[in-house]
What does this fold into?
Amino acid sequence: MNVSVAAASSALGATLLARLLLKAIPGRWMGVLIGFAAGVLLAVALLGALPEALEDSSAAGNIPTVMLIGLLALFGIEAALRLGSAHHEEEGGLERGVSARVMMGSSLHHFADGALIATTFAASPGLGWGVALAVLAHEVPHKAGDLSVLVRAGNTPRRAVAIACISALGALPGAWLGALALELAKQAVPYCLALASASFLYITLSDLLPAMRREKSRRIQASQFVALLIGIGMIGGLEALAHA
It folds into this structure.
């Protein structure tokens, strides 16, 4: 029970805190958050999820293959969605299909977080709650990036929060799997992290960076680049603290 509460509180708490953070940001800065989101997702993928996936020596050799399969699968899913919809639209330079990709990547990441929380609870409840709190703090900037992307993709703020909360619930099956089958959960974590990393890279490279390049104002472009660096620095700093 404690494992489920910790996993859900961590994931949903990060989403709600991120929403409060974005609510405090003036509307004129929302476009700059595309740069911040790109920096956060790149850093989560390359400085967070991928290194953690590679730490498992038994899975490390398969991680590049899993990421390649994930990237190809995302491309195939997107192509199928394009063919299946005659009313495909773009809003704010970001395709509506990005919502599904954000949800998929975040769900996989939360699944891995849930399994990680469960494995630490098995060692010590105190350690488990500590990891849950660390995950919450780590996820706030990531969730802020997700929410800004979802809003720019045409979702209302309320719908964006709902999508983010649904993806956050991916932590629960990860926690349940971790509690029921500790060894199996440990084996699944690196592959979930690899797929999440592939998803975040795909979103950044196919949606966010092209949207930034389409921006015509040099001032906003410069602000987006600075925001990108801030996003990378924030996640990089949190990762450094987590492994200190």
